[in-house]
Amino acid sequence: MTRQEIVIKIAKINHIIGEWKYRLDLDGEVEIETLSPDLLYIDEWVREIGLYIKQNPSPILTRQITNIGFTDLLEDYVQKHEEEIESAYVWVLNKYVRQMRDLQSLCDKQSVKERGPYKDLIAPLANEQVATLLQRAVDAGILDCHYQPTLQAKTMQLKIIAFAVSSLCGFPRAYAHFEKQWNREGNRIATCRMPRRHVECYEAAKTLYPEVDFSSFEPKHEIATFYVPQGDDDIIEMYNDLIKFGYIAPDTDLSVFLGIFDKKKFRKPVEWIKGQRQLAYFVYLAFQKFNKKTLWIKGETCFRVNGNIPHRASFVTGYSYLKRAGWMNKYDVKLQAICNKFNHIEESVMPHEGTDERLIHTSRCVFYSTKGDKEKQKMYSDLAEGGYIAPETSFSIFEGIFDETKFTEPVQWTKSQAQLMYFVQLAFKADNPFDVWRKCVHCFCFPGGAKPNRGSMNSNFRSIKKKGLLDTFDIELKRIANNYTCKDMDVPDQTGAFIFSNLTPN
Length: 506
Prior knowledge:
Blueprint: H1 3-27, H2 42-55, H3 59-66, H4 71-80, H5 87-115, H6 128-139, H7 155-169, H8 176-181, H9 200-206, H10 232-244, H11 254-259, E1 270-272, H12 276-287, H13 295-302, E2 303-305, H14 312-325, H15 333-342, H16 373-385, H17 395-399, E3 411-412, H18 417-428, H19 436-443, E4 444-445, H20 454-466, H21 475-485, E5 490-492, E6 498-500
Parallel strand pairs: 1-2, 3-4
Antiparallel strand pairs: 5-6
Helix pairs in contact: 1-2, 2-5, 3-5, 4-5, 7-9, 10-15, 12-14, 12-15, 16-21, 18-20, 18-21, 19-20
């Protein structure tokens, strides 16, 4: 292997693991199989990189390998989701974790030799100036003799130290080196915010570095509100739609919502109760035209996501991902319709039923459906007659699983979880490709109120698929699902042989 080939492989691994971590941070779960096809080769790449590093030690390559990171997080994720991930990917990822730990250990040994008397510091920090500055924190009991945080150390104290040392040493990124030094990948110091009360210990940490200007440490932004040419009538209509369809907190006062369009009337941010990616999608579609330069700053000021300040960088990456994937017209069609109405955009730009466009989702709670009331009524009747749902289930309860504004309670499923999984897969997966099991857990329950097990449903499906039972697991359920999706099915005759309905007799 040449050095150039090794560098390329390191870059590819870094990209794959980085994409996995980004999706994990964004949604909390990752469909491993949708990552790069090269994922199946990363264990072999790590082995080849290790062989090269043993024969050709290089501080530059060592730093590049160290920068990959997230090995422990990946191992933990694979262990928790092993049943949901294809076995080939589980095997590769487990092997990758083991080999990456061996490679990291090799890099650490080589790095220790290079750092000499500063062996307790990572390579970029291994010099007399950094060690002298960190010694102040050691003397204060925040760091131990190996420059690692003590048990009493607070995350904000570490952030102050990192900011101060980076400022004095001229590091362009204040926290990057120190997050690696202190192994803070799962609890980043860069995103830590100053508490509003009981700040004495944090102020004391600042006194360790009196020569540092901390005026930019916690940047404060002026209230930035959205400019829109629309009048109050359009704003109020948008407000009502966002509440109706569950995008903003139902107790949001109209005056609070109006305040995000007028700095003088601004009272507090609006509480967004969906995901941050949906918020980025909404802010862009609704306000981008007249707020281009400060769009995400205003989004950060004017909204909170489940009580938290939105992450501005995630705004950008979330929107960019949707744009790259070509999902801007189909990510959340309901939210897009609200924005289009606000901006007086003709609905003809929306994807229509019957097109080949696959809609990503309109809600994380209920099933998106392209079918009309007739098909839903027929499916409801068939499930009730077949004893799949509780006899007391009314159609008004059943239709709630397709519309969150009509949802009142989950539908009680009276058969096994495997049968529920089978039905949901056949009936709803095509229109809900990314979150069908999450919606199933919300929309169905078992007698006594027990919720379906999301992980088990995924593994049940994989098991049925591997056994080749997708067409025969429950013929009646398949018939009901096919009637709903308007698919032909292979109907077994009395002998057990299949009569293919799509074939015409000679």
